[in-house]
């Protein structure tokens, strides 16, 4: 095997970073990483692949050797050299886009984005960097792909009665940006005040179910502030370095505010991370009603904006344009607060959610702990799928329906697992009995084939009829 030649080959473009401690990774993956580590050590100094090394030959190129974000993986020296002197019409630069990612290396096992847009043009001017970031963050979304939008709430199936024994509250939110004005990382005070004025005047026209009041953060009374805090409506000055390094806390609290309807079920944030965040929420598990209110209210906002001569940033490729590439497309996050004190302790809980394209946060949102086993479960995707499709994923993932007449077998199995595990049963007693006994096996198939993976693949066939069971039979018969 050894040839005496260095690896990776010269000119291959493959970059590596130093060895890391994988002690906190799940055991099976740790074995895999360690085996790769041994392999690379036996062939010289090369280690596991990771982010790009710093290219000190290019003036001003940042040192990204310890970084773990999409920007550090995608911004090569050549791309930096090509884009470093470009500016958008408003004057935003590549260094402005990446500064938050440079200043915040990230967590070894959590991939942040590491870049923001300063205006709508940023995604085009710096496309050589943003396109691979978007592709990586959004599951291979291509630079020629077309986004789809569907805000027809009638297309949502079910969701009007999620199990009240689990679901405490439901919400749907999105972001929007007003065309012609710079985004929060780059806007000046005048632009930020223009955003507030446009939205405040639009919301003042609402009546009926959407009749409400605007509360500017600047000048808010202590009583109003405390009430909004008690209602969990108030957003505060950003303290996360990811946001402050991106310039989103400048001039705080100037031109920031919150509007909500009288029933406190429809909210609009102004000039937080985006020009505006539109939120529909209520207690309980009627996600269908929440989504209907969301679609209706959002359309009202857009219609009034258009009547004033403005429009939201949007294009066929990226959908709705927002500050962070992670929110492009729909910008939509549909979530429920759900009680799962037992299932959440299972080591494969995160994997179950991942298979359903769902993600979890703590009770108070990102970077918070779960209180009493209550999690915020929401869709993981934003771009390339419609609003209806994303809300449907959340509904399907938590809906307590076990009928196999529906096409969502994986979802039904997931619900079955949740119920069984909440009842104290071991997850492996719930999986199909066809799953092989691999407890004494020492081969890569046994290390990699999980019960949930087996179930998702067992009924599939290649065009010639080959099955998963035939793939693994030799490994089953030979421990």
TrEMBL record:
Pfam families reported in the protein's UniProt record: ATP-gua_Ptrans, ATP-gua_PtransN
Span of domain Phosphagen kinase C-terminal: 166-408
Keyword Metal-binding appears in the UniProt entry: no
Gene3D superfamilies reported in the protein's UniProt record: ATP:guanido phosphotransferase, N-terminal domain, Glutamine synthetase/guanido kinase, catalytic domain
UniProt GO molecular function: ATP binding; creatine kinase activity
Name of the top EC class for this enzyme: transferase
Protein name: creatine kinase
InterPro entries registered for this protein in UniProt: ATP-guanido_PTrfase, ATP-guanido_PTrfase_AS, ATP-guanido_PTrfase_cat, ATP-guanido_PTrfase_N, ATP-guanido_PTrfase_N_sf, Gln_synth/guanido_kin_cat_dom
Keyword line: ATP-binding, Kinase, Nucleotide-binding, Transferase
EC number: 2.7.3.2
Positions contributing to ATP binding: 169-173, 232, 277, 333-337, 361-366
Occurrences of domain Phosphagen kinase N-terminal (ranges): 53-139, 426-479
GO biological process, one term: phosphocreatine biosynthetic process
Keyword Transferase: yes
Family named by the database record: Belongs to the ATP:guanido phosphotransferase family.
Annotated SUPFAM superfamilies: Glutamine synthetase/guanido kinase, Guanido kinase N-terminal domain
């Amino acid at each position: 095997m050894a040839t005496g030649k260095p690896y990776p080959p010269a000119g291959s473009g493959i970059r590596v970073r130093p060895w890391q401690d994988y002690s906190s990774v799940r055991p099976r993956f740790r074995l895999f990483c360690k085996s790769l580590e041994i392999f690379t050590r036996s062939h010289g100094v090369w280690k596991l692949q990771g982010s790009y090394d710093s290219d000190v030959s290019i003036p001003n190129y940042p040192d990204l050797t310890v970084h773990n974000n999409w920007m550090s993986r995608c911004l090569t020296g050549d791309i930096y050299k090509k884009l470093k002197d470009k500016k958008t019409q408003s004057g935003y630069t590549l260094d402005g886009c990446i500064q938050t990612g440079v200043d915040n290396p990230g967590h070894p096992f959590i991939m942040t984005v590491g870049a923001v847009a300063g205006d709508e043009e940023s995604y085009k001017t710096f496309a050589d960097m943003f396109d691979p970031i978007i592709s990586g963050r959004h599951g291979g979304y291509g630079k020629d792909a077309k986004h789809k939008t569907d805000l027809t709430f009638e297309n949502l199936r079910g969701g009007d009665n999620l199990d009240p024994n689990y679901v405490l509250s439901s919400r749907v939110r999105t972001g929007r940006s007003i065309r012609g004005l710079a985004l929060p990382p780059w806007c000046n005070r005048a632009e930020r005040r223009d955003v507030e004025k446009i939205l405040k005047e639009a919301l003042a026209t609402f009546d009926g179910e959407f009749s409400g009041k605007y509360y500017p953060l600047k000048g808010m009374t202590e009583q109003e502030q405390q009430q909004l805090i008690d209602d969990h409506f108030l957003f505060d000055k950003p303290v996360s370095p990811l946001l402050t390094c991106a310039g989103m806390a400048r001039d705080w609290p100037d031109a920031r505010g919150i509007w909500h309807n009288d029933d406190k079920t429809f909210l609009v944030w102004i000039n937080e991370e985006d020009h505006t965040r539109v939120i529909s929420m209520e207690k309980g598990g009627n996600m269908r009603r929440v989504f209907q209110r969301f679609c209706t209210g959002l359309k009202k906002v857009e219609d009034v904006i258009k009547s004033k001569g403005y429009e939201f940033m949007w294009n066929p490729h990226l959908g709705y344009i927002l500050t962070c590439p992670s929110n492009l497309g729909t910008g939509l996050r549909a979530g429920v607060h759900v009680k799962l004190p037992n299932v959440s302790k299972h080591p494969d809980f995160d994997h179950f959610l991942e298979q359903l394209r769902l993600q979890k946060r703590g009770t108070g949102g990102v970077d918070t702990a779960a209180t009493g086993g209550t999690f915020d479960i929401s869709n993981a995707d934003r771009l390339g799928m419609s609003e209806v499709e994303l809300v449907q994923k959340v509904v399907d993932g938590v809906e307590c329906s076990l009928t196999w007449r529906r096409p969502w077998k994986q979802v039904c199995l997931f619900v079955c697992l949740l119920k069984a595990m909440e009842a104290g049963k071991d997850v492996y007693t719930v999986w199909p009995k066809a799953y092989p006994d691999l407890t004494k096996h020492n081969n890569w198939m046994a290390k990699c084939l999980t019960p949930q993976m087996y179930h998702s693949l067992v009924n599939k066939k290649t065009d010639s009829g080959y099955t998963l069971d035939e793939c693994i039979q030799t490994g089953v018969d030979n421990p």
